[in-house]
Amino acid sequence: MVLVLDYSGRPMVISSGMQSMDTMKQVYQIVKPLNPNFCFLQCTSAYPLQPEDVNLRVISEYQKLFPDIPIGYSGHETGIAISVAAVALGAKVLERHITLDKTWKGSDHSASLEPGELAELVRSVRLVERALGSPTKQLL
């Protein structure tokens, strides 16, 4: 369970790693009256995270259950493709670990992004945001 220590309205990011959907519903009920300025991140806590364990569709479920808060994605996979896909599915916040060297010891360096990959992630996300466009069909 989450212990809310500071509910002064500062933005709060709450990751869902290792939490059930029922727990996230409880967290929402506790946090919302104290600080409406928060978001949930879909997260599967594994390093590195395998594609079949990502469950990006949880983003859509969170959007339905919690339509009044931003929903994002906390990724621990290798590469940037899955994070870009999360944005295409509506993620408003991305969280990725960064490292200067993937070969360093530690459980998450291999799944972290090096500076060049982080730059490519930003470029790719901005491209996807432009490509999403509007729901209005336009003829060129």
Largest sheet: 4 strands, parallel
Mean pLDDT level: 94
CATH class: Alpha Beta
Q: In angstroms, what is the radius of gyration?
A: 16 Å
List the secondary-structure elements in sequence, H or E.
EHEHEHEH
Strand order of the largest sheet: 1-2-3-4
H/I helix tally = 4
Runs in which pLDDT lies below 50 for 5 or more consecutive residues are: none
Q: What is the first-to-last residue Cα distance?
A: 52 Å
CATH homology superfamily: Aldolase class I
Helix content: 25-40%
Shape: globular
Domain PseI/NeuA/B-like: 8-136
Protein name: NANS isoform 4
InterPro entries: Aldolase_TIM, PseI-like, PseI/NeuA/B-like_N
What does this structure look like?
With 140 residues, the chain is α/β, with parallel strands linked by helices. It has one domain: TIM Barrel, CATH 3.20.20. 35% of the residues lie in helices and 13% in strands. A four-stranded parallel β-sheet has the order 1-2-3-4, with helices on one face. Helix 2 (57-65) links the parallel strand 2 and strand 3. The chain is globular. This is NANS isoform 4. Pfam families: NeuB.
List keywords for this structure.
140 residues; alpha/beta; TIM Barrel; four-stranded parallel β-sheet; 4 helices; 13% strand
Describe the protein's topology.
Blueprint: E1 12-15, H1 21-34, E2 38-43, H2 57-65, E3 71-75, H3 81-88, E4 94-96, H4 115-132
Parallel strand pairs: 1-2, 2-3, 3-4
Please summarize what this structure is:
The chain has 140 residues and is α/β, with parallel strands linked by helices. It has helices spanning 21-34, 57-65, 81-88, 115-132; strands at 12-15, 38-43, 71-75, 94-96.
